[in-house]
Specification:
Elements: H1 5-16, H2 22-45, H3 53-59, H4 67-101, H5 114-129, H6 131-140, H7 155-182, H8 186-209, H9 213-223, H10 235-250, H11 253-261, H12 263-268, H13 273-295, H14 301-313, H15 318-341, H16 351-378
Helix pairs in contact: 1-11, 2-4, 2-15, 3-4, 4-10, 4-11, 4-13, 4-14, 4-15, 5-7, 5-8, 5-9, 5-13, 6-7, 7-8, 7-13, 10-13, 14-15, 14-16, 15-16
Amino acid sequence: MSIYKDYNNRINKEMTDNKPNSARQGLLVACLAGSVLLLALLDIALGSVRIPLLEVLKSLTSKASRPEWTTIVLVFRMPKMLTAAMAGAGLSVAGLILQSIFRNPLAAPDSLGIGAGASIGVAVLMFAGGSLGALGASAQGIGTQGSALLGNLPPLGYTLLIIASSTGSAAVLIIILLISRRFEQVVTVLIMGLLVGYLTSSLVSLLVYFGSPQKVQLYLSWTYGSFGGVRTNELPYLAIAICLGLIITLREIKALNAFLVSERFASTIGIRVRTSRTKLLVAASILAGSITAFCGPIAFLGIAAPHAARLLSRKADHRILLPIAALTGACFALLADIISSLPTYGSLLPINPILALIGSPIIISMFFRRNKSSMEVNQ
């Protein structure tokens, strides 16, 4: 919690400042947006088949020199790139919401067990109900085969998938919120979050044990986490869910700033604390739940990207921090996806270990910065 002391001292001023260093922040946003665009092009160009950047641009208008390049770009790599960018931005914003509400620098969808909550929502729908498999089979007659999570589902199937995963995330969030009201220490809340995550994982393990071999294999492949399992017809459902979560968050920017100080402070400036907190938790649940449903459990993005955004922006005001965090998360996800595609033997590296290599140094540096600040204060 001490990592936010300097933010708390500045937050009132930043909330009332109408022009908070706009030139520097604008340049930073432009640089991050340019980085996202460059990484997006590289993500499409690199892989088992290397495609020149100029041919990538031509493929977008179906004018590539080779027809197979157009197919690779539009059918396979473009959906994967868009999924990575959206997932990175959404998980980063979800982590930012949780860190501000709990005033906890280690709060994130994976560290608080929210990803596990989304997993149990998907597992219950897959193993207990079996509705998604039936819907997939009735949609195209292909059962649950294919590159996506549960085959080629109709709109109802995707809607159920998002609702189930978001409901699981929200259930865990509510439990963590109730626990945080009983225990004020940050470490205790984190430990409780991990225990809730283990509990939900145990329930998932029981569902897997009693599931059919086909569903078990499908579920286990989903748990590895990947940006490449979302196809073109599935992207709109993921995009709508992420946009909904971002819109709710944008409408509660003032509340996020106030929660970073305290809930008492939020109530003194006229914020309806319970309503705003509920809306923000719903937004975090939708973001984390929908991304987990389509991409599987993705670790480290929700905790590392918001801290990197704070290091870059040097601001606590969420009017500035939110877009920077979203762009930073998109950069991290695209970079990890590029690295996973570098091997030339036709297979992809798993995403989570790569994100751990990117995110761990950022989290470690956060602790060193906090320790340095504490030493300076003591002196």
